[in-house]
Write a structure and sequence with these properties.
Layout: E1 4-5, E2 19-23, H1 30-41, E3 45-46, E4 76-79, E5 95-101, H2 104-121, H3 129-135, H4 140-149, H5 154-159, H6 162-173, E6 178-181, H7 185-196, H8 220-229, H9 231-241, H10 254-277
Parallel strand pairs: 2-4, 2-5, 3-4, 5-6
Antiparallel strand pairs: 1-6
Helix pairs in contact: 3-10
Length: 298
């Protein structure tokens, strides 16, 4: 894997003033990073909470603004909800931003297996990968970067072409200290450990060894659909995590496909909710889940 590192080396005398921002894309090893930071630098770690409704619907940022007094001594910031505007809360201090990315097929498979395992642990039912895919937005990694990291309002993002989105992401990540694949998590932690004196024992978190659905269990049609409909995420992953620029071609109808899917998602989300709540519903599609039945439902 090729990892792009950006930024200049800092003077050793300034090293203690760095603030590390780990932008946590879901299913991209963020839990492993958070665990490592909490274990080694817990008293210097900030994970801002999500901005609550209804304010989140009228704000470009997604996180709750921390009190300035609470930022004293903070050197590590991470989470799903933070955006680049939070960096301004550390004036005069060098910022080291990092983000890990994932290919679209691996993202959806990992997210599906994680969700189904979680539902079953709560006595609920698994449902098919096809239905799950219909409940999720297209190009989730790119959308995350644009709306949460770069804090561009979602309605504006929906109107952008794929080329414009990719350009905005490249501009936004240009000065990042570390951009790489989720597989480069240990490399990122090793750099932090070398700079800050943390442990070199990196424990992976949130791994699911029992995967009900893998690429091998999907049909060619399913794989091709994911790759075609999520070409922006694939191009992003190839650019930062593989060999140079991607040759992925974008369709002019990409924004329309994404908007249409957003209109359909509430129906499929409702359907998936109903299926997982039914105690003896045959919701899975033959991918090997052992269905649990909640005792209280009998």
């Amino acid at each position: 894997m090729k990892t792009k590192l950006t930024g200049k080396a800092d003077n050793k005398g300034e090293r203690t003033s760095h603030v590390y921002f780990a932008y946590h894309v879901p299913k991209c090893a963020g839990s492993s990073i958070d665990y490592y930071i909490a274990q080694n630098f817990g008293d210097q770690f900030l994970r801002p909470a999500r901005l609550k409704a209804p304010r989140i619907h009228f704000s470009s940022r997604n996180y709750q603004q921390p009190e300035m007094g609470a930022l004293e001594g903070i050197r590590f910031v991470s989470g799903h909800w933070i955006g680049r505007s939070l960096e301004a809360c550390f004036p005069g201090r060098p910022i080291r931003q990092s983000i890990l990315l994932r290919d679209p097929l691996g993202f959806y498979l990992s997210y599906y297996n994680y969700r189904m395992k979680r539902y079953q642990s709560q006595g609920m039912q698994a449902f098919s990968f096809d239905l799950f895919y219909r409940t999720r937005p297209l190009n989730p990694v790119s959308s995350f970067i644009l709306t949460r990291v770069l804090e561009i309002p979602a309605p504006l993002v929906r109107l952008m072409s794929s080329e414009e989105k990719l350009h905005r992401i490249h501009e936004g990540l240009r000065d990042f200290w570390f951009v790489g694949s989720y597989r480069d998590c240990d490399q990122l932690l090793a750099m932090i450990a070398r700079e800050e004196g943390g442990s070199v024992d990196f424990a992976s978190r949130n791994k699911n060894p029992h995967k009900a659905v893998t690429e091998a269990t999907l049909t060619d049609g399913q794989v091709n659909r994911i790759m075609e409909e999520n070409s922006l995420d694939q191009a992003l992953y190839e650019h930062y995590c593989m060999k140079g620029d991607s040759a992925v071609a974008f369709s002019p109808s990409d924004p329309l496909k994404a908007i249409l899917k957003d209109f359909q998602r509430p129906f499929y989300s409702y359907l998936s909710h109903r299926l997982r709540e039914l105690p003896d519903q045959q919701a899975a599609d033959g991918h090997g889940f052992k269905r649990k039945v909640r005792p209280e439902s009998w």
